[in-house]
Structures are given as structure tokens and as C-alpha cells.
């Protein structure tokens, strides 16, 4: 399972990269706005800065919602770095745009996916990644991981190569559930990744080991 971090914060991205387990980054317009990024030049500079930190794919979302606008923006974004994946919303023009980018060999991430039907369409259009939002479904009392299961079954039935990018991951249990189901990628905050480290028996065990061998190195 690939680990992506869902943030536009450079410090957090660097910290995750330093951990040695990071495979990529996803951003969205809200995350960019949270970092105070606005204006075409600043947006471009920020994506370049992210690409300079990580080795893997970096999802950069278009802000336009019409076909021509998404194509124009996506082509600019894709030209910035080969790591850039153009993130496109699950709307009619978005599906057309994904088909266009796919035909040109430009990587795409179909975002705001909340149903298996939407995921099927994204795969048919040739999306590189599909992003079902697990946490936001949980928020409305629908088990988001059930959607991941459904998409896994459908994609496996037909051999679709679109990667399932479990998004809106909120905590370590989400990561484990998606890993058991076989999601290709998960994206979430650094806190969810770091929470995988934690176990009280590890802390208790380490404390005892340190106490037993205290001062015995030299
Ligand atoms: C997907 O790529 C989105 O950026 C993201 O995962 C949304 O997560 P949220 O529901 O925590 O905002």
C-alpha cells in the first residue's frame, strides 16, 4: 500500500518524507488556501516546492469546473513536473477532461468520489487514481470502507488499472481497514501515519529495556 500525505504544508511534507515511508502527496483547494497560497504564480511555485521535497506523485487540483478551463489549467500543472497528477472533480466535464488527459499520457486523480458508479466512470475514462472519500462518508453515517470494498471488487472483476486512492483518511484504523481490503494507496494527515507507531506495550517494553541496561554501554 502506498502512503500519500494529504496536505499542502511544506514542513509536514518534509517531516513525512524524512520518515522514509512517503510515496506521494495529495492537495486540494482547501488545503492550498489553508497555507495562504493564492495567485497563479504562487500556486505554481508551491507545487514546484512540494515536488522538490517528495519522490512520488503530487496531486494538484484544477480550480475550473468547465471542460476548457480544466484542460487549460491541467496542462499548465502537468508541465511543471513529471510528478504532477492533475486532480479533477467527479463531474461530467471532469470525466471528459480525464479522458482527454489520459489520451495525452497525463496522470489524473478523479476526486470527490462517493459512489461505486462514480468510481466505475472514472476508471472507464482512464483515471490514474480514483479518490473515494472514506472519512466524509463516515461523517454521514455511511461506512466509507464499504465503498472501498465495492470499488475493489468492480475494478478486479474487469482488470481496471485505475488505482484506488482511499482519501479523507482520518485515523490509523481507516488505514488498516483500507489495507485489508486492498486499496492501492491511502492519503491522510501525518498524524494518522504517526499513530501507526503507537502501542503501549512498545513503550512499556522499551522503558524496561532501557532501565535494565542503563549505564552498561561503557
Ligand atoms: C482527497 O484527496 C482530499 O484531499 C482529502 O483526502 C479530503 O479529506 P478531508 O475529508 O479530511 O478533508
TrEMBL record:
Taxonomy, superkingdom: Bacteria
Pfam families (UniProt xref): TAL_FSA (PF00923)
Keywords: Cytoplasm, Pentose shunt, Schiff base, Transferase
Catalytic activity: D-sedoheptulose 7-phosphate + D-glyceraldehyde 3-phosphate = D-erythrose 4-phosphate + beta-D-fructose 6-phosphate
EC number: 2.2.1.2
EC primary class: transferase
Main location as per UniProt: cytoplasm
Pathway where this protein functions: Carbohydrate degradation; pentose phosphate pathway; D-glyceraldehyde 3-phosphate and beta-D-fructose 6-phosphate from D-ribose 5-phosphate and D-xylulose 5-phosphate (non-oxidative stage): step 2/3
Cell compartment(s), UniProt: Cytoplasm
PROSITE patterns: TRANSALDOLASE_1 (PS01054)
Keyword Cytoplasm: yes
Active site: 87 (schiff-base intermediate with substrate)
PANTHER family: FRUCTOSE-6-PHOSPHATE ALDOLASE 1-RELATED, TRANSALDOLASE
Family per record: Belongs to the transaldolase family. Type 3B subfamily.
Functional summary from the UniProt entry: Transaldolase is important for the balance of metabolites in the pentose-phosphate pathway.
Protein name, UniProt field: Probable transaldolase
Record organism: Flectobacillus longus
Amino acid at each position: 500500500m502506498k502512503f500519500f500525505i494529504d496536505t499542502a504544508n511544506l514542513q509536514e511534507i518534509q517531516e513525512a518524507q524524512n520518515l522514509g515511508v512517503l510515496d506521494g502527496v495529495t492537495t486540494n483547494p482547501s488545503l492550498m488556501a489553508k497555507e495562504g497560497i493564492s495567485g497563479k504564480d504562487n500556486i505554481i511555485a508551491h507545487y514546484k516546492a512540494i515536488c522538490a521535497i517528495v519522490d512520488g506523485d503530487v496531486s494538484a487540483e484544477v480550480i475550473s469546473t468547465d471542460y476548457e478551463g480544466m484542460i487549460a489549467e491541467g496542462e499548465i500543472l502537468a508541465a511543471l513536473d513529471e510528478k504532477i497528477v492533475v486532480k479533477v472533480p467527479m463531474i461530467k466535464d471532469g470525466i471528459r477532461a480525464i479522458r482527454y488527459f489520459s489520451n495525452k499520457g497525463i496522470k489524473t486523480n478523479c476526486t470527490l468520489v462517493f459512489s461505486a458508479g462514480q468510481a466505475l466512470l472514472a476508471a472507464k475514462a482512464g483515471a490514474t487514481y480514483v479518490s473515494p472519500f472514506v472519512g466524509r462518508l463516515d461523517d454521514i453515517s455511511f461506512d466509507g470502507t464499504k465503498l472501498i470494498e465495492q470499488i475493489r471488487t468492480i475494478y478486479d472483476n474487469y482488470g481496471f488499472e485505475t488505482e484506488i486512492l482511499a482519501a479523507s483518511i482520518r485515523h490509523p484504523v481507516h488505514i488498516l481497514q483500507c489495507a485489508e481490503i486492498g486499496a492501492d494507496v491511502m492519503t491522510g494527515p501525518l498524524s494518522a501515519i504517526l499513530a501507526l507507531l503507537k502501542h503501549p506495550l512498545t513503550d512499556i517494553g522499551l522503558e524496561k529495556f532501557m532501565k535494565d541496561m542503563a549505564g552498561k554501554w561503557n
